[in-house]
Amino acid sequence: MTTNVAVLARWFAYMDSDDPDRVLGMISDDFTMSVQFSQGAGKSAEFVGDREGLVSYLAQREKSTLVHHIDVGSVVGEYELVLGRTTRDGAFEASFNATAQLDAAGAVRRLLIARTPEVSFTR
User: Which branch of life, at top level (predicted)?
Assistant: First the structure.
């Protein structure tokens, strides 16, 4: 059961591809982000910043290894919110939440993502 979360669906499709840098074309001039990334067992990192922060995040991540699945999503005004999971070779890897605030042109102004392998909503 998802709602039309077209921007985040495209964002994660780009992230799952061989060319995730395409997300750079989706952000506004005043973009700000935080990605809270847990590997489990208390090991986590936060990636923050503006466009350059996103460039740094993209440079360090694996390409074409994870698949993002949006399980539920909603649009509330200028916000898209999703709950989903990532898989690696078809097996559960982590749950994630993502919230994007869009500008009037539909570009991503603010992005907050949190992920953890410690909680699964499908088990």
Answer: Bacteria
Q: The domain that contains 46 carries what CATH number?
A: 3.10.450.50
pLDDT tens per residue, range 38-78: 999 989 999 999 999 999 999 998 877 889 999 999 999 99
CB environment 10-25: b (16+ within 10 A), e (fewer):
ebbebbbeeebeebee
DSSP 15: H
DSSP string computed for 56-101: HHHHHSPSSSEEEEEEEEEEETTEEEEEEEEEETTEEEEEEEEEEE
Q: What is the DSSP letter of 104?
A: T
Within-domain flag for 121: no
pTM: predicted TM-score of the whole model, two decimal places: 0.93
- Domain of 55? 6-15+22-109
In a domain, 116, yes or no: no
The count of domains in the chain is: 1
- Is 31 inside any structural domain? yes
